[in-house]
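Q: I'm writing a short methods note and want an example of a predicted protein-small molecule complex. Could you take the sequence and the SMILES for pyridoxal-5'-phosphate and return the bound structure as tokens? Please keep the output block clean; save any remarks for afterwards.
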Amino acid sequence: MKIYENIQLNKESNFQHLYIQVYKALKDLMLTGELKKGDKLPPIRKLADLLDVNNVTVVSAYRILEEEGLVYKKIGSGTYVTLNLHDKENYESLPKGIIEEDYIPNSLIEQSHIHIEENMINFASATPSTDLFPVDDFKQVLNEVLDRDKGSAFGYQESQGYYPLRIALKKYIHQYGIHTETSNIHIISGAQQGIDIIAKGILNYGDHVLIENPSYTGAMAVFQSRGAKIIDVALEEDGLNLQDLEKKIVAYQPKLLYIMPNFQNPTGISYSFKKKKEIIKIANKYNVFIVEDDYLSDLNFFANDNATLKSLDTNDIVIYIKSFSKIFMPGLRLGFLVVPRPLFEEVLLAKHATDISTSGLLQRALELYLLKGTWQQHIKYMESQYRQRFEIMIRCIKKYMPQEVKYVLPKGGVNFWFKLPKGLSAKELYEIVTKENIVFAPGNLFFLNNDGLAYFRLSIAAVNEKEIEYGIRKLSELLHNFISQENKVSIPSSQYTPIL
Ligand SMILES: Cc1ncc(COP(=O)(O)O)c(C=O)c1O
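A: Understood, no commentary inside the block.
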């Protein structure tokens, strides 16, 4: 039983069911060779006692291992390991894993099923409402660019991006502690494209990528589309679990670690400064490139520190992605990367192969917008608008949310993450609240294995203050009823049901 004594479970985890943690711990023991072909797994009750969990938790973990063909049962004897998983050949030849590979992150399909009508209170979308867009100011810079550059505004732009814009962005990220050369900045058509061209340029079929659990569905979809094997790492209130991270790096030798250190999507959590530094240290130790998706660090309301990882990166190991979608206008499809030197060529070639270049007209307009200082005014305006919503949201959550619903309040950003009491499903709740014209994002969208049925995300990007006040009060009422015994709907025992 010695090897099982080292298994560490996070019983407080808001992010991963215990049976999945047990399953993963056992699989890790197989990957590291501590559990070999023919070894007998402990009797259910014994392991449950040792780990201080329910028998059902161990039964569920064994069942997944069995469904993956990693163990088999001998009637009346016990459960045995089928093969030496640490042999690379065996690992490669395994059928797709239920938890790691079988899930198709079909979030786009799922999200398009979130039917949002005009009169609905939209806590589902993390996209800013269009009334916040600086349309008139942008119209002015567009006209100025057209008068100034005439036809050249419509020519092909360099794949790396319009040079004056890269100069302006170099200055802009100085304030985020990122000191880099213009030659390391690549303009992209939105952060989503950034993730895509990084994956296209760097990953080979079958490479491993580590992500947070839960994570941004758009990134999971990209990595999956490149044939990468996605492995999730436990996420805690102050960032990744470092033991789990290091263990998975050793076991899988990933090419990339994809994370959102500030106001993570979907949980809203921010990494502590200490963890940010530790993660960079670990990445350097094992030579793993970190992809830092900075989709939102600008919206810091109460965090003491929202340093970007890139600002702490002395070894050029962080690929920094900046999106403007949440703070500017998502439809512009503009963002940028800071790319480590060794990856310059791969990323640039991938960008060229994808769309040759981001719209030259829009790049020129953004450059002028930055140059004129209109950008700073706009960010201040967005910050104040979001801050009002953020503060009202926090007040309403504290006032109305049933105490059985668990959450960790974020210190900035737009996302709030909740956990329902045991046995309740956010999908069922979703059905109930949509009838009352409220929508949110069910948590399972953000999990690799379609786990996380107990979670849901509320975003304040697309709702005004009145809607927040009414929406949270109403949602809380519905939640009270939902939680009360007579309305209780239990999650079926097979909690990783296939995605719809
Ligand atoms: C974490 C994260 N990264 C990237 C994106 C995509 O951003 P963009 O609109 O810049 O492509 C989103 C969009 O919601 C996001 O949440």
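A: Remarks, as requested: Residues 374-400 form the longest helix (27 residues). The longest strand covers residues 229-236.
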